[in-house]
């Protein structure tokens, strides 16, 4: 794995075949995948014994699924040098996903992990997936959900430092542009919404040589941030620009 890789696990909600689902995955893998030395996807499906009506586990089974995950990760990473990439909860099952190069005896190693959980039925399988389509096309969130995940990361950090999310404060947003004309068009659209320019500068990125930082006072609540960020992101798409996140100070 690349020396810059840092595991970055997060979760989001969605639907899988019309059933509510929770997907957890290692987001940082997006920067390095597909790993050419690990072209084979392994999946393990574990069936819940007592799921809730919505298909998610009760509290006791949730903890057991965590133990099963630990056992599978231990076996497959140790014995096959597999990389654990994601997990899902939906429709009464828990699915675990790995990528590996060598698949020899994978069935034995899965059975060795599950031997401590005799009350749980499970299935498994392997498929060649050179382009990591399982990771990118199934597990990975769409662009909207990915941005919401990034928002939650910043909001969690603010809360951990005692931030009062219901209090307004200046929030800065960064946008990168390919041309001066794109930047001007973006600003002409957004200035009417109460934003001011905090920074207007050149960018080191040759693809996006122009950079704009705009600021407005808003609450740092999840609903407010998601609404503001997605409107700025969508406008950036319209003018061929790139929204590059937000930052603010802690308010106590």
How does this structure look, described?
The protein is an alpha+beta fold and 252 residues long. The protein is 33% helix and 31% strand. It has helices spanning 59-80, 106-114, 133-139, 143-160, 180-190, 222-238; strands at 9-16, 19-26, 40-47, 83-90, 93-100, 122-128, 169-177, 196-202, 210-218, 242-248. The strands form 2 sheets. A 6-stranded antiparallel beta sheet has the order 1-2-4-5-3-6, sandwiched between helices. It has a 4-stranded antiparallel beta sheet with strand order 8-9-7-10. Helix 4 (143-160) crosses helix 6. The longest helix is centred in the N-terminal third of the chain and has 22 residues, at 59-80. The chain is elongated and about 60 Å long. The model has no long low-confidence stretch (mean pLDDT 94). Pfam families: DUF695, RraB. Residues 149-248 form the Regulator of ribonuclease activity B domain. It comes from Chitinophaga qingshengii. InterPro entries: DUF695, RraB-like_sf, RraB_dom.
């Amino acid at each position: 794995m690349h020396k810059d890789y840092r595991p970055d696990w997060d979760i989001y909600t969605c639907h899988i075949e019309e059933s509510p689902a929770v997907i957890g995955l290692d987001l940082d893998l997006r920067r390095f995948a597909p790993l050419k030395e690990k072209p084979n996807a392994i999946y393990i499906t574990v069936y819940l014994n007592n799921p809730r009506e919505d298909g998610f586990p009760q509290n006791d089974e949730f903890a057991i699924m965590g133990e099963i995950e630990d056992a599978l990760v231990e076996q497959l990473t140790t014995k096959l040098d597999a990389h654990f990439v994601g997990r899902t909860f939906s429709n009464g099952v828990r699915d675990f996903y790995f990528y590996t190069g060598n698949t020899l005896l994978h069935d034995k190693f899965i059975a060795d992990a599950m031997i401590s959980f005799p009350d749980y039925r499970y299935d498994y399988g392997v498929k060649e997936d050179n382009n990591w389509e399982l990771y990118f096309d199934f597990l990975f969130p769409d662009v909207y959900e990915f941005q919401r995940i990034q928002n939650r990361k910043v909001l969690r950090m603010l809360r951990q430092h005692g931030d009062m999310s219901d209090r307004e404060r200046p929030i800065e947003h960064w946008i990168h542009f390919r041309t001066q004309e794109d930047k001007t068009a973006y600003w002409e659209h957004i200035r009417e919404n109460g934003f001011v320019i905090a920074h207007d500068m050149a960018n080191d990125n040759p693809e996006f040589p122009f950079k704009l930082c705009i600021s407005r006072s808003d609450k740092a609540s999840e609903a407010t941030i998601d609404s503001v960020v997605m409107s700025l992101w969508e406008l950036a798409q319209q003018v061929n620009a790139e929204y590059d996140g937000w930052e603010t100070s802690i308010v106590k």
